[in-house]
Write a structure and sequence with these properties.
The chain has 378 residues and is α+β, with helices and mostly antiparallel strands. Helix content is 26%, strand content 23%. It contains 8 helices and 17 strands. The strands form 3 sheets. It has a 7-stranded mixed beta sheet with strand order 11-12-14-13-15-17-16, sandwiched between helices. Strands 1-4-10-6-7 form a 5-stranded antiparallel beta sheet, with no helix packed on it. Helix 6 packs across helix 8 (358-376). The longest helix has 19 residues, at 358-376. The model has no long low-confidence stretch (mean pLDDT 97).
């Protein structure tokens, strides 16, 4: 047998190796974000174990950021980094254990299907060829990566336009968010899609498909290069701590906003759901009616969406306005949602082999345009 080796020195790679001496007891630690205690994301390559039964033990799973997230979770694996599948995983309250027999000499394991920076750049390149898209540079991250906005509109359409914003991956390890954005963009730019064509008659779109490229490249779950959780920065962002939010918020204030969507992933709940602005001081019957219309339209458009299970509501008037959805909804008096997708599977429509996946996130991102149409066409 080839000597076992684990590597993670690649885009978004993250793991700490404790012991590789025994294939039946590979001991690992989930590495925390740099400059932060958040520890949940991992992504690494195991080499030398083709046709060898292996047992991987994540010794600090019980001390991670969200330990309940391991209950019912099944880890992802791939031999080519294109096709990902779930492998048998268990959790005893402290240690997460994975048992599998790799079919290839190199196998990759990840918390969720990665969305690489190269794919992000490819996405920007693909959509930029459309005459509907204006690619805008808003600023730079701490490490010099672009903060990119896609402004999408049909210049031939006359009359006032409602401004729809979608941002994704404030938390870089929530890669399903950029898969969601990719599906959203692909459908929106499809000239043969009647929903998209209708939307572009009376809406313009502002899409930031990747809010946190530094954190993603470093293999972080929640934070940027200097350890900042971007989704706690919206009240008072700064170029020192959170340039990503600073420049995006600045653009919002310049152009305005009528509908806001912020795509995320949830470690624990095996469902797709939204979080609205019910606890903000400015929540009103008008916003409530828009929320109801949006959710009803999305339920009709996608069986992967549901409204029964989600987060508990904060008390009225007690919303944390440092969160993007709350700040935007309060500031612009508009409909605003945080979209949450699972790291596990959609328990209402499970897929034993793949669980929730990048492909399913893309489909969900495409389907939300029907809900956007329902609340912007009136």
């Amino acid at each position: 047998m080839t000597q076992l080796h684990i590597s993670s020195q690649f885009d978004a790679g993250a793991i700490t190796v404790v012991s590789l001496a025994d294939p039946q007891d590979i001991q690992l630690q989930i590495r925390p974000d740099n400059a932060s205690a958040f520890a949940q994301w991992f992504y690494f390559c195991l080499q030398g174990a083709a046709d060898v039964p292996v047992v991987l033990r994540f010794l600090n799973a019980g001390q991670s950021a969200y330990p309940p997230g391991w209950d019912g979770y099944q880890m992802l694996a791939s031999t080519d980094r294109r096709r990902w599948f779930r492998v048998p995983t268990s959790y005893d309250g402290q240690v997460m254990t994975v048992r599998t027999t790799p079919t290839a000499n190199r196998i990759y394991f990840a918390y969720f299907e990665p969305y690489s920076y190269e794919r992000h750049l490819d996405l920007l390149g693909t959509v930029s060829v459309s005459d509907l898209v204006d690619v805008q540079h808003l600023g730079a991250t701490h490490e010099g990566r672009d903060i990119t906005l896609l402004h999408i509109r049909d210049v031939a359409a006359t009359g006032p336009k409602k401004k729809v914003w979608l941002i994704a991956r404030q938390h870089p390890g929530e890669t399903m968010a950029e898969w969601f954005a990719e599906g959203f963009l692909q459908r929106l730019l499809d000239r043969d899609d009647p929903v998209s064509r209708t939307l572009l008659q009376h809406c313009e779109f502002f899409v930031v498909p990747h809010m946190n490229p530094d954190g993603a490249a470093r293999g972080n779950l929640r934070t940027n290069a200097v350890g900042t959780n971007l989704n706690r920065e919206w009240l008072a962002p700064s170029t020192e701590k959170s340039p990503e939010v600073f420049y995006v918020r600045q653009k919002m204030q310049q152009v305005g906003l009528d509908l806001f969507l912020d795509a995320h992933g949830d470690e624990n709940l095996p469902y797709n759901f939204v979080v609205g602005t019910e606890a903000t001081p400015g929540y009103s019957p008008r916003i409530e009616a828009l929320q109801d219309s949006f959710k009803a339209a999305w339920l009709a458009a996608s069986p992967d969406f549901q409204t029964t299970i989600g987060y508990p509501r904060a008390a009225p008037g007690q919303a944390n306005l440092s969160l993007a959805t709350n700040w935007v909804g309060q500031t612009f008096s508009c409909l605003a949602f945080t979209i949450e997708m699972p790291f596990k599977d959609n328990a209402n429509l499970p897929d034993a082999r793949n669980g929730w996946s990048g492909a399913r996130s893309k489909k969900l991102g495409a389907s939300v345009l029907s809900a956007v149409l329902a609340v912007t066409s009136a």
